[in-house]
Amino acid sequence: MASLFTPSRKVALQVLQEVREGRFAEDALSDALDRQSLSAKDRNLATELVYGVVRWRDRLDSIIRRCVIRPGTRMDPDVREILRTALYQIFFLQRIPEHAAVDQAVMYASQRSKKHAGFVNAVLRRALRDRETADPPPEKDPRRLAVYYSHPEWLVRRWLHRFGYRKTKHILQHNNSKASLELRLNTLKATPDTVSQITEESELQAIPGFPNALRVMRSSGKVETIKGFLEGSLVVQALASQMIAPLLKPQPDMRILDACAAPGGKTSHLAALVQDNARIVALDISQQRLNETAANLQRLGVHSVEFVVGDAADPQMVKELGTFDRILVDAPCSNLGVLRHNPEAKYRVTPEALMQFARIQSRILSNMAGLLNPGGMLVYSVCSPTEEETVGVVDAFLTASPGFSLLPFIREEVPMPVLVDARGFFATFPPPPEMPLDGFFAARVARK
Q1: What is the per-residue pLDDT across 88-141, written as a single tens digit (0 to 9) for each?
Q2: What topology is assigned to 239-447 in CATH?
Q3: 213: helix, coil or strand?
Q4: 3-class SS at 426?
Q5: How far apart are the first and last CA of the chain?
Q6: One fold for both 2-134 and 182-236?
Q7: CATH number belonging to domain 182-236
């Protein structure tokens, strides 16, 4: 019987167990798919199930609670994961026959025990029979919104207070949507001829208004299969992330520091913007991630980067780096702006954690700013929209650092003027309705 269980569902359940134990879904899924020889169809379904279940976890659990005959029943974590996966298929994937979702779930539960199989069958049958009462639409109440859209209540309440109901609902829906795979043309290798060939032979579409940005219209499951990727003509980089490096205005022959550089998307972008003609230092705390960055940059034909392992929050270490004309501080953060890619982050971040991130970010910003040459510029960026990690960090730094001044962005510097606010900060959150972007923030400061 076990052999009949589809490989996509088996992989998904294994990955979901790893996510439950603390791994990031993206990493666990990538490792699992590398170990398995799945068809493109099975790879896509496994990916859909993993991200779908993680995105909608609280809503799926609320359905389970309504369909359990004896409320308060203690449930085996693996059985709960089986139920979540089946219910996601029933309530969110119209292309999956309901009987197939139920049969597969019962089959997998039976490997544990007949009792578990009977329990799973009963819950799923009741969910099918009482679909409307099992998954009622949300109200404007923060708690109900939080459960229905599977976000922590404290975060929903914060957004309601800051943005109001309509924008908050849009944010919640956006966060639970599927992110397109977006690429950047590597101008160090891609010529007009190769660009034309890549777009003609691959399912890629240029994104109007965004230089060198492409969107994958139909995924085969492996980015390596896209023409031009292995040759170094393409870089995986989300659209909002592609807008960060140009804000630094790097110039040839400058000495440039990319702090917290791994996995190297912005490092390679900086190199491309100066035609690989600068002295770039890529700093990261992880040797392994820096090794991966080096391999990626080699594929892209980048030769202007020196790799340094070190902690940007350590003031003694950073003094050994020397001084720079441009510094990019893409600081570690809560990842609350990239929930489409890392949905598990919303369950792991607390208000207290935001303050911890802000303290680390402040130390890194202060350390890096001390390395800036007079007249030099620094861009501080995070993929988070929280005030603690964005404006709070920048304002605290400027108050404590009279030798630096805010250098506001102007709207002509970015593809969409709405992305520059009244103070000259770059912010892609809340996402514009016409362009589903990740939530990035950036500020630019100059040394007097």
Answers
A1: 999 999 889 999 999 999 999 998 889 999 999 999 999 999 999 999 999 899
A2: Rossmann fold (3.40.50)
A3: strand
A4: strand
A5: 72
A6: no
A7: 3.30.70
Residue ranges for the binding site? 260-266, 284, 311, 330
Q: What distance in Å separates the CA atoms of residue 236 and residue 179, rounded to the nearest whole number?
A: 13
| Bridge partners for 377 per DSSP | 326, 446
Q: How far apart are CA 441 and CA 443, in angstroms?
A: 7
**CA distance linking residue 232 with residue 421, whole number of Å:** 35
Distance from C-alpha of 399 to C-alpha of 380, rounded to nearest angstrom = 16
Catalytic residues: 383
CA nearest neighbour of 367 among 399, 307, 320, 406: 320
Q: Which of 420, 435, 436 is nearest to 338 (CA)?
A: 436
> Tokens at residue 196, please?
């034309």
3-state secondary structure at position 289:
helix
Structural contact between residues 370 and 322, judged by C-beta atoms closer than 8 angstroms: no
CB 404 within 8 A of CB 369: yes
Gap between the Cα atoms of 112 and 117, Å rounded? 8
Report yes or no: 62 and 147 within 8 Å, Cβ to Cβ.
yes
Q: Which of 387, 414, 393, 385 is nearest to 175 (CA)?
A: 385
88 closest CA partner among 119, 125, 61 = 61
Binding residues for S-adenosyl-L-methionine: 260-266, 284, 311, 330
pLDDT band (50, 70, 90) for residue 2:
very low
What confidence tens digit (pLDDT) does each residue in 271-324 have?
999 999 999 999 999 999 999 999 999 999 999 999 999 999 999 999 999 999
CATH superfamily of 2-134: NusB-like (1.10.940.10)
Q: Domain locations in the chain? A: 2-134, 142-175, 182-236, 239-447
Share of the chain above pLDDT 90, in %: 86
